[in-house]
Amino acid sequence: MNTNPEKTAVNEELDSMIFAFFEEENGLICDFCSAPDPKKTYAAHDFEMRELHSRSIGDWAACGECAKLIDAGDHEGLLGRAMASFPGIETASEDMELFMDLSDAMKYIHESFWKNRREVNPE
Questions:
Q1: DSSP letter at 36?
Q2: How far apart are CA 47 and CA 93, in angstroms?
């Protein structure tokens, strides 16, 4: 149990930023960078993200730029693109603890995607 009120406030702010990032406001969005109009989907097993109290169900959608990075197996490039496009990243960058929490959460989400991605054989 977290008894540090400052850490709890950071966690609450991080949670609200994460939920805002994944919120669909204008139809389908890229699951990695939130760009509109995804071009490709990637099959993945359903999985729990216990550290984030969340679950991923079904395929992940990617915009053209993120799809190129995924197809190339560029884990770091994809993570960098996602971090750079994250709403509020400028604000988070001013608070090192919040930025590191956000960075760790994004890495965890991406690692979970890569571990649970299913290769689909074309018919």
A1: B
A2: 29
